[in-house]
Amino acid sequence: MYLEDGADDALPRSLPAEVLIHRLAPGVVATVASTVTSQPILAVARCCDVSLAAVAGSVTFAVIGVQLADPGNLGTILRTAEAAGAGAVVLTEGSVDPFNPKVVRAAAGALGRVPIVVDVALADLGALGLPVLGAVARGGVPYDEVPLSAPVALAFGSEAHGLPAGLALYGLVSIPHVGRSESLNVAMAAAVLCFEVARQRRAPGWPIGGNR
User: Fold this and answer.
1) What string of DSSP letters covers 93-110?
2) What are phi and psi of 65, to 5 degrees?
3) pTM of the entire predicted model
């Protein structure tokens, strides 16, 4: 961890004993940070690779990002998925790197709290062991009419092209539109659908924050 002198207030309240703190002169972080207004602290952490096999069979709710390109959208989806109780987020080949700095900022800590599987081929998504519902702007079953308390994976397509035609899906789900907008932002759609899963699972015997 790298900390500018005089910025001890930026440190977390507790740190593992093995974390080393390197002191920097004031203003150093701003010269290397990718943000306009940076914090006076940086950390270097080891990436944790998660395989599809590691989460298959152990989660009952997963979010699948299919060729998502925008880092802000992916970060928001990660934050939303974790908050709604998803047991894993699966990203297909061609999706933006979840460790992109913009994704990390938008995820607001979710990167360390929900397993993320990356670079999964479309043909391998069936190995997750969950029925996959594809989110589409129109033509799917209204989301509030779909039973989502059973094991399920929600798939969200790229911002420009949506879900690919060759993706094997159990069904399609849509968010009914009243206005004339063509579609919702993919991160917004993910928030609506993920929290519908959470709402339906708030029944007795399925507490939020419990078995995912």
Assistant:
1) TTPPPTTSHHHHHHHTTG
2) -105, 120
3) 0.84
